[in-house]
Design brief:
Helix content: 55-70%
CATH superfamily of the largest domain: Intergrase catalytic core
CATH topology of the largest domain: hpI Integrase, Chain A
Structural class: mainly alpha
Distance between the termini: 60 Å
Radius of gyration: 22 Å
Number of strands: 3
Low-confidence stretches: none
């Protein structure tokens, strides 16, 4: 699709990417650029092209907007709003592990046991292990050995439905991941341990949560100072 769009445009790669400005989000333009750069690099390697015009171009990730984590009260309301064992397990796993939605969707009974989840389909094909509370492990046993969480869209619909029922706004899977990271740091978890649990290949990705948590602490201290 991306390569086909570029070929149909009749433009050189640099012009094609420049024309995407104003029509696509920064994250989309970055994705297009990386795909096109990879294709051109392959073409040079196999001698279909003499040089890659995008070889010196870099496509850094766009800055992420800070996401407010769920409060303790919001998490309690979300749990209380669950009506089925499936809903309770989905909320529990997202809140306790910080797993990506794609990783949850791929979970099967064989991946879980003895208080752990073995994540085999992690981003970048890097497997990792996270812990699971005994309460959530018990809830999983209720679902039986043939359960699955459905695809990512099913999980998104589930958490959105629970959020509406609980009266909590902006409920989506990745917010649970952000909340898990912030709560883990607030509890004193080492940043390297958090990096391992989240499956980040680069520590700078984990440091975003450190910065967010530090900012929130500074604001709380400032408000206390102003009030005192």
């Amino acid at each position: 699709m991306i390569l086909g769009g570029w070929k149909r445009s009749g433009l050189d790669p640099v012009q094609y990417l420049a024309n995407l400005n104003g029509h696509h989000a920064l994250s989309t333009r970055r994705y297009y650029g990386r795909i096109l750069k990879g294709f051109l690099r392959w073409s040079v390697k196999h001698q279909y092209l003499a040089a890659n015009p995008l070889e010196d171009f870099h496509f850094p990730p766009p800055p992420e907007e800070p996401v407010a984590p769920f409060t303790d009260d919001e998490l309690r309301r979300l749990r209380d709003a669950c009506q089925t064992p499936y809903e309770r397990v989905v909320i529990a796993i997202l809140a306790e592990t910080g797993m990506r939605i794609s990783e949850v969707a791929a979970l099967r009974p064989a991946n879980m046991g003895s208080g752990t989840i073995h994540i085999q389909n992690a981003k970048g094909n890097k497997a990792r292990v996270v812990a699971l509370s005994s309460e959530t492990e018990t809830m999983l046993s209720v679902l039986g050995n043939g359960f699955n969480f459905g695809d990512t869209q099913a999980i998104r619909r589930t958490v959105k439905r629970i959020g509406a029922r609980a009266g909590v706004s902006n409920v989506y899977p990745h917010r649970f991941r952000h909340s898990f990271a912030c709560r883990a740091l607030e509890s004193g978890m080492d940043v390297l341990a958090l990096q391992t649990l989240l499956g980040h290949s680069d520590l700078s990705m984990t440091r975003r949560y450190v910065q967010f948590t530090a900012t929130e602490r500074a604001l709380a201290a400032h408000r206390k100072f102003l009030g005192g």
